[in-house]
Amino acid sequence: MSIRIRFAALLAMGIPAGAAFAAEDGSTSVGGQVFLDISHISQQQEQKDGSEKDVPPTGTGFDVKRFYLSVDHQFNDIWSADLTTDAQFSSSTTAGSGGVAEVFIKKLYLQAKINDAFVVHAGAYTTPWAPFVESLYGYRWVEKTTTDRLGFANTADWGVNATGKIADNLVTYSASVVNGAGHKNPTRTKDVDFEGRIGVSPISWLTLGAGYYNGHLGQITTANESFDSNTATRYDVVAGVNVSGLRVGAEYFNARNYKSASAKTGVLAGPAGVVVAPDATTAVVSDKADGYSTWASYAFNEQFSVFGRYDQSKLSKDVVSGLKDTYYHLGVGFKPTKGVDLGVVYKHEKVDDGVVSIGSADANSSYAIGGTSPTTGGKFDEIGLYAQYLF
Fold first, then answer.
1. Residue 217 region, left (φ>0) first, then alpha (ψ -120 to 50), else beta?
2. pLDDT tens readout for residues 9-68
3. How far is CA 111 from the centre of its chain?
C-alpha cells in the first residue's frame, strides 16, 4: 500500500494525528495543531473631530485561526520529509459566498541529518528567527511574536536551510537562503534573500539569540530589475529565561525598507512600492521601524499559569515619525490534559498617527487599526477564551 493511500485511509478512519504507522521503507506519523477562540472585540477608529467610531471586527464570535496538519516520513537515519498544511478563513468577492476557507502549504521539505551539528532542509521550511522567539515565549496560541504580527518576518519560506546544535546545545544556529515572499508565495525571484540566527545557552535556563535578514522580500523579478529599489534588512536580538515554571524574555528588532507609511494618509504598507518601484519612473521611499516585546509567565503547577506581554513599536521613523503601535495582553491559563491549553485573555492595542494592519485577531488573519490621517489613530480591545490543542 502506498504512503498516499495509507494517509487517506488514516484521515477517513479518524485516527488521531500523532499516530504512526510503518511503511515499506520507513515510518510515517501524522500530527495537527489548532488555534481557536471565542471572544468579544471592540475596535474604535479615531475621527478627525476627536470622536471614536466602532469599526469591524467589533462584535462577539468564534474563530478557528489556524489548523495545521502535518505528515512526517522517516526514510532512514539520515533522510526524512515533512508536509504541513495550513488553513485559514479568507474573505471572498464571490456574491453570496461570504468567504472561503483556504488550505495551503506551510512546510514541504526534504531533510538530510548529517549529524546534530549539520541538518539540511530543501523546500518550504521554518525561517530562522520568528519560530525561535516563539519557542522562548511559549504562548504562540495566544498571540504571534511582534515581528510576525507586524509583518516584519515570515515563519516559513521556500529555499534551502541549514540548522545545527554544537557543544552539547551550547550553541545553535539556523541559516536560510530563500525566495523572500514567504511560504504562501513560491514565485521565483531575480535574487535570493538571506536570513540567519545564532543562539547561545551559557546556562541551562538562559538563552540569548541574534538574527539578521537581507534581501528583496520576493519583490524583484526580471520584469522590474531595472526599476529603482531598496534592500530590506532586519536586525534582531532576544533573551529568554525558563526556570522552575517561570518564563521571562525580551525581543528587539530594527527593520529597514520592509514597509513605509504614507505621509498623506498615515497608512503603513509594503513591501510593494518600498522594496521596488511600481514603474521605471517612480522612486521608492526609504523607511525604517524598530520595536521591542517583553513577556513573562509563571506556571504554578502542571495545570495553572498566569501570563502577560507588552510590545511597543515605532513603525515609520523616516516618513510618519509619530506612527506607533502599543500592544499588551494578560491572561490566566489552564491545562486540563496533555495537548490542550485554555486561557482567559484580555488584549489591548493602540495605534497613534496612522493605520497599521495586524496579522492576527480573527480568522481573516489580519485587521487594520487606526485612522486614515497622520493625525488620527485607533484602539482595539478583546476579551475571551483562547485555546489550542495538539493531536
1. left
2. 333 334 444 455 444 568 999 999 999 999 999 999 988 887 889 998 899 999 888 899
3. 22
This prediction has a pTM of 0.89
At 192, is the secondary structure helix, strand, or coil?
A: coil
> What distance in Å separates the CA atoms of residue 345 and residue 331, rounded to the nearest whole number?
4
The pLDDT assigned to 15 comes to 40
- Encode burial over 124-161: b for 16+ CB neighbours within 10 A, e otherwise: bbbbbbbbbbbebbbbbbbbbbbbbbbbbbbbbbbbeb
Q: What is the DSSP letter of 141?
A: T
Rounded-to-integer distance, Cα 106 and Cα 86, Å:
6
Name the region of 18 (left: φ>0; alpha: ψ -120 to 50; beta: rest). Answer: left
Domains of the chain plus CATH, in order, are 28-390 (2.40.160.10)
Nearest CA-CA partner of 311 in 149, 81, 78, 173: 149
* Residue 201, phi then psi, degrees to nearest 5: -120, 85
